[in-house]
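Quick start: what a row looks like.
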Amino acid sequence: MLRILINALRTGVVTIHYPAEPSVPPDRFRGAPVLRAGSHLPPPSVCPAGAISEHFDAEGRHVALDLARCVFCGRCAEDPWADAVVMGRDFELAAHRRDDLRIEVVADDPAVLAAGPAPDRDAEAARASSEIHRVLGRSLHLRHLDAGSCNACDWELAALLNPVYDVRRLGIDFVASPRHADGVVVTGPVTRNLETAVRRTVEAVPDPRVVIAVGACAASGGIVGEGYASAGGVDRVLPVDVYVPGCPPRPEAILFGILVAVGRLDARGLPREG
């Protein structure tokens, strides 16, 4: 016992101070790709996840990036597109709406840069968000729901409970039963076999409740997509309050999304560069 206490004193406090203080990701971290308008942007065929699309009109070639589908692999930032796309460092990408995770640029005109609609939710949605913040803002219990993931997002989610991130210091904890929860954190695409279970689990959570889609698969279906074995993203089955993109998102990104869901932090703007 004495040895344990001595080791604890030598180690000191390892818990990060995020979100009270900014968190700096390691050098090898890949954030969201940043598209440079007016440059030679990659074609859709480059992206293995189908996150890049394009269309043409009088303004020229429009290239769009869907962060909900992006797996941050960095292939679009390799030669010969290294000068057109750079991998950003931002991990605070959680959004209330799927459209807010879509970035579009006009490749032929550096003066034109567009993104998904601003998060201007209607009055009813705003009232619901306010009620969630009033009831759940100080204390939040979540049920983790694996709808068919590869376990990568699950590992990052579990890391929130370790001494480094210590999510409980913010009044957030995970529970075993949806009846004891204020919301669910869903990882993975919704498999057909679990579609009914996902609905019933969320229905067992008392109102007001939050649904947080963590990772590219939960946000959009990811590389799995939609088919005979998968319903796709969570919003194909349930209304989603917050999308947390990434494959997998780092623990701070998940924490940011949880705090956005209960109104303790504002959803951040997307990284853009003209």
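That is the whole record. Residues 111-122, 270-274 have pLDDT under 50 and may be disordered. The domain at 123-261 is CATH 3.40.50.12280 (Rossmann fold).
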